[in-house]
Protein backbone atom coordinates (compact mmCIF):
# COMPACT_ATOMS: atom_id res chain seq x y z
CA UNK A 1 0.00 0.00 0.00
CA UNK A 2 1.14 3.57 -0.72
CA UNK A 3 0.62 6.18 1.98
CA UNK A 4 0.98 9.33 -0.14
CA UNK A 5 -2.31 10.69 1.31
CA UNK A 6 -0.91 10.52 4.87
CA UNK A 7 1.66 12.69 6.65
CA UNK A 8 4.00 12.27 9.61
CA UNK A 9 4.69 15.63 11.28
CA UNK A 10 7.83 15.66 13.44
CA UNK A 11 8.65 17.93 16.32
CA UNK A 12 12.37 18.77 16.17
CA UNK A 13 13.92 19.32 19.61
CA UNK A 14 13.78 16.03 21.58
CA UNK A 15 12.43 14.00 18.63
CA UNK A 16 14.85 14.38 15.70
CA UNK A 17 17.71 16.19 17.46
CA UNK A 18 19.18 16.10 20.95
CA UNK A 19 19.12 19.84 21.66
CA UNK A 20 16.92 19.74 24.80
CA UNK A 21 19.99 19.43 27.03
CA UNK A 22 21.47 22.56 25.39
CA UNK A 23 18.24 24.51 26.15
CA UNK A 24 18.46 23.33 29.77
CA UNK A 25 22.12 24.31 30.20
CA UNK A 26 21.56 27.70 28.56
CA UNK A 27 18.55 28.55 30.76
CA UNK A 28 20.47 27.32 33.81
CA UNK A 29 23.37 29.63 32.96
CA UNK A 30 21.00 32.61 32.82
CA UNK A 31 19.12 31.54 35.98
CA UNK A 32 22.39 31.22 37.93
CA UNK A 33 23.47 34.66 36.78
CA UNK A 34 20.16 36.14 37.97
CA UNK A 35 20.11 34.16 41.23
CA UNK A 36 16.89 32.35 40.24
CA UNK A 37 16.37 28.70 41.25
CA UNK A 38 16.12 26.38 38.22
CA UNK A 39 16.27 22.59 38.00
CA UNK A 40 15.37 19.74 35.60
CA UNK A 41 11.80 19.57 36.95
CA UNK A 42 11.19 23.25 36.15
CA UNK A 43 12.93 22.74 32.81
CA UNK A 44 10.33 20.11 31.84
CA UNK A 45 7.73 22.92 31.75
CA UNK A 46 9.78 24.66 29.05
CA UNK A 47 9.69 21.81 26.53
CA UNK A 48 7.98 22.89 23.31
CA UNK A 49 7.00 26.39 24.53
CA UNK A 50 8.31 29.65 23.04
CA UNK A 51 11.51 31.41 24.10
CA UNK A 52 9.60 34.25 25.78
CA UNK A 53 7.21 31.97 27.67
CA UNK A 54 10.21 29.85 28.69
CA UNK A 55 11.88 32.95 30.15
CA UNK A 56 8.76 33.85 32.14
CA UNK A 57 8.46 30.30 33.50
CA UNK A 58 12.17 30.28 34.38
CA UNK A 59 11.97 33.67 36.15
CA UNK A 60 8.87 32.49 38.04
CA UNK A 61 8.23 36.03 39.36
CA UNK A 62 11.51 35.87 41.33
CA UNK A 63 12.91 38.67 39.15
CA UNK A 64 10.76 41.23 37.31
CA UNK A 65 12.79 42.70 34.44
CA UNK A 66 11.71 45.40 31.97
CA UNK A 67 10.79 44.42 28.38
CA UNK A 68 14.21 45.65 27.27
CA UNK A 69 16.02 43.56 29.87
CA UNK A 70 13.96 40.51 28.87
CA UNK A 71 15.02 40.94 25.24
CA UNK A 72 18.66 41.02 26.37
CA UNK A 73 18.18 37.90 28.55
CA UNK A 74 16.66 36.00 25.61
CA UNK A 75 19.50 37.08 23.33
CA UNK A 76 22.11 35.95 25.88
CA UNK A 77 20.35 32.61 26.40
CA UNK A 78 20.14 32.04 22.66
CA UNK A 79 23.80 32.86 22.06
CA UNK A 80 24.85 30.38 24.76
CA UNK A 81 22.37 27.80 23.38
CA UNK A 82 23.77 28.14 19.85
CA UNK A 83 27.32 27.70 21.17
CA UNK A 84 26.34 24.50 23.00
CA UNK A 85 24.49 23.13 19.95
CA UNK A 86 27.49 23.89 17.78
CA UNK A 87 29.81 22.09 20.20
CA UNK A 88 27.60 18.97 20.10
CA UNK A 89 28.60 18.44 16.43
CA UNK A 90 27.39 15.19 14.84
CA UNK A 91 25.92 14.01 18.15
CA UNK A 92 23.06 16.47 17.61
CA UNK A 93 21.17 14.03 15.36
CA UNK A 94 19.35 11.41 17.44
CA UNK A 95 20.14 7.75 16.62
CA UNK A 96 17.96 5.89 14.14
CA UNK A 97 16.32 9.04 12.76
CA UNK A 98 17.62 9.00 9.18
CA UNK A 99 16.98 5.28 8.52
CA UNK A 100 13.43 5.63 9.89
CA UNK A 101 12.72 8.68 7.72
CA UNK A 102 13.95 6.73 4.68
CA UNK A 103 11.66 3.81 5.53
CA UNK A 104 8.66 6.13 5.86
CA UNK A 105 9.52 7.86 2.59
CA UNK A 106 9.78 4.50 0.83
CA UNK A 107 6.20 3.77 1.95
CA UNK A 108 5.09 7.05 0.36
CA UNK A 109 4.33 9.09 3.52
CA UNK A 110 4.61 12.89 3.29
CA UNK A 111 7.12 14.07 5.92
CA UNK A 112 7.07 17.44 7.70
CA UNK A 113 8.72 19.24 10.61
CA UNK A 114 6.68 21.37 13.06
CA UNK A 115 8.88 23.07 15.67
CA UNK A 116 8.46 26.06 18.01
CA UNK A 117 12.14 26.85 17.53
CA UNK A 118 13.39 29.82 15.55
CA UNK A 119 16.72 27.97 15.35
CA UNK A 120 15.13 25.20 13.23
CA UNK A 121 17.00 25.89 9.93
CA UNK A 122 20.43 25.95 11.65
CA UNK A 123 19.70 22.81 13.68
CA UNK A 124 18.48 20.90 10.63
CA UNK A 125 21.56 21.91 8.69
CA UNK A 126 23.93 20.79 11.45
CA UNK A 127 22.05 17.47 11.80
CA UNK A 128 22.15 16.88 8.03
CA UNK A 129 18.35 16.91 7.82
CA UNK A 130 18.15 19.81 5.37
CA UNK A 131 18.90 17.59 2.41
CA UNK A 132 15.62 16.35 0.92
CA UNK A 133 14.33 14.41 3.92
CA UNK A 134 11.26 16.62 4.42
CA UNK A 135 8.46 17.85 2.16
CA UNK A 136 7.80 20.84 4.45
CA UNK A 137 9.30 22.62 7.45
CA UNK A 138 7.13 24.85 9.68
CA UNK A 139 8.87 26.58 12.61
CA UNK A 140 8.87 29.33 15.21
CA UNK A 141 9.86 31.93 12.62
CA UNK A 142 6.64 31.29 10.63
CA UNK A 143 4.00 31.44 13.36
CA UNK A 144 2.34 33.83 15.81
CA UNK A 145 1.18 31.33 18.42
CA UNK A 146 3.48 28.56 19.63
CA UNK A 147 2.53 25.17 21.08
CA UNK A 148 0.12 24.26 22.71
CA UNK A 149 -1.60 26.31 20.01
CA UNK A 150 -2.18 24.10 16.91
CA UNK A 151 -0.88 26.76 14.48
CA UNK A 152 2.50 25.20 13.63
CA UNK A 153 0.96 21.74 13.04
CA UNK A 154 -1.83 23.12 10.84
CA UNK A 155 0.75 25.08 8.84
CA UNK A 156 2.85 21.93 8.29
CA UNK A 157 -0.26 20.00 7.15
CA UNK A 158 -1.21 22.79 4.76
CA UNK A 159 2.31 22.88 3.33
CA UNK A 160 2.24 19.16 2.52
CA UNK A 161 -1.39 19.34 1.34
CA UNK A 162 -2.71 16.68 3.72
CA UNK A 163 -5.87 17.00 5.86
CA UNK A 164 -5.22 17.21 9.65
CA UNK A 165 -7.14 13.96 10.24
CA UNK A 166 -4.58 12.16 8.04
CA UNK A 167 -1.56 13.49 9.97
CA UNK A 168 0.33 11.82 12.79
CA UNK A 169 2.40 14.15 15.01
CA UNK A 170 5.56 12.90 16.75
CA UNK A 171 6.16 14.83 19.99
CA UNK A 172 8.22 14.69 23.19
CA UNK A 173 6.49 17.57 25.04
CA UNK A 174 3.08 17.94 26.64
CA UNK A 175 2.63 21.37 25.01
CA UNK A 176 3.15 19.70 21.61
CA UNK A 177 0.84 16.78 22.37
CA UNK A 178 -1.89 19.26 23.38
CA UNK A 179 -1.26 21.29 20.22
CA UNK A 180 -1.50 18.20 18.00
CA UNK A 181 -4.77 17.19 19.68
CA UNK A 182 -6.14 20.71 19.19
CA UNK A 183 -5.22 20.34 15.49
CA UNK A 184 -7.26 17.09 15.46
CA UNK A 185 -4.22 15.03 14.45
CA UNK A 186 -3.03 11.66 15.70
CA UNK A 187 -0.30 11.72 18.37
CA UNK A 188 2.81 9.57 18.71
CA UNK A 189 4.54 10.43 21.96
CA UNK A 190 8.29 9.76 22.45
CA UNK A 191 10.75 10.28 25.29
CA UNK A 192 10.59 10.31 29.07
CA UNK A 193 8.12 13.15 29.76
CA UNK A 194 4.57 12.60 31.06
CA UNK A 195 2.50 13.14 27.89
CA UNK A 196 -1.01 11.94 28.78
CA UNK A 197 -2.99 9.81 26.33
CA UNK A 198 -1.28 9.20 22.95
CA UNK A 199 -2.28 7.03 19.95
CA UNK A 200 1.28 5.59 19.88
CA UNK A 201 3.78 5.77 22.76
CA UNK A 202 7.44 4.71 22.36
CA UNK A 203 10.79 5.61 23.98
CA UNK A 204 12.28 7.12 20.81
CA UNK A 205 12.21 6.92 17.04
CA UNK A 206 15.07 4.40 17.20
CA UNK A 207 12.98 2.13 19.41
CA UNK A 208 9.90 2.19 17.15
CA UNK A 209 8.83 -0.42 14.61
CA UNK A 210 7.71 0.89 11.22
CA UNK A 211 4.75 -1.49 11.49
CA UNK A 212 3.49 0.37 14.61
CA UNK A 213 3.13 3.53 12.53
CA UNK A 214 1.53 1.72 9.61
CA UNK A 215 -0.99 0.02 11.93
CA UNK A 216 -2.10 3.44 13.22
CA UNK A 217 -3.27 4.39 9.72
CA UNK A 218 -5.13 1.12 9.07
P1 LIG B 1 14.09 28.75 20.25
P2 LIG B 1 10.43 22.08 19.56
C1 LIG B 1 11.12 24.10 21.16
O1 LIG B 1 11.42 23.25 20.09
C2 LIG B 1 11.88 23.67 22.41
O2 LIG B 1 11.41 22.40 22.87
C3 LIG B 1 11.68 24.66 23.51
O3 LIG B 1 12.41 24.28 24.66
C4 LIG B 1 12.13 26.05 23.01
O4 LIG B 1 11.91 27.05 24.01
C5 LIG B 1 11.35 26.41 21.74
O5 LIG B 1 11.55 25.40 20.76
C6 LIG B 1 11.80 27.74 21.17
O6 LIG B 1 13.12 27.57 20.73
O7 LIG B 1 14.49 29.50 21.49
O8 LIG B 1 15.22 27.98 19.62
O9 LIG B 1 13.31 29.60 19.27
O10 LIG B 1 10.39 21.06 20.66
O11 LIG B 1 9.09 22.70 19.26
O12 LIG B 1 11.14 21.60 18.32
MG1 LIG C 1 10.21 18.92 21.38
Short description:
The protein has 218 residues and is of the alpha/beta class. The protein has helices at 20-34, 40-44, 51-59, 67-88, 97-106, 120-126, 151-160, 174-182, 210-216, and strands at 7-10, 110-114, 136-138, 167-171, 186-190, 200-202.
Overview of this protein structure:
This protein is of the alpha/beta class and 218 residues long. It is 43% helix and 11% strand. The chain has a six-stranded parallel beta sheet, with helices on both faces. The model has no long low-confidence stretch (mean pLDDT 96). The structure holds 1,6-di-O-phosphono-beta-D-glucopyranose (B16) and magnesium ion. Magnesium ion binds at residues 11, 13-15, 47-48, 172-173, 176.
Descriptive terms for the model:
about 220 residues, alpha/beta, Rossmann fold, DNA polymerase, domain 1, 6-stranded parallel sheet, 9 helices, 6 strands, globular, binds 1,6-di-O-phosphono-beta-D-glucopyranose, binds magnesium ion
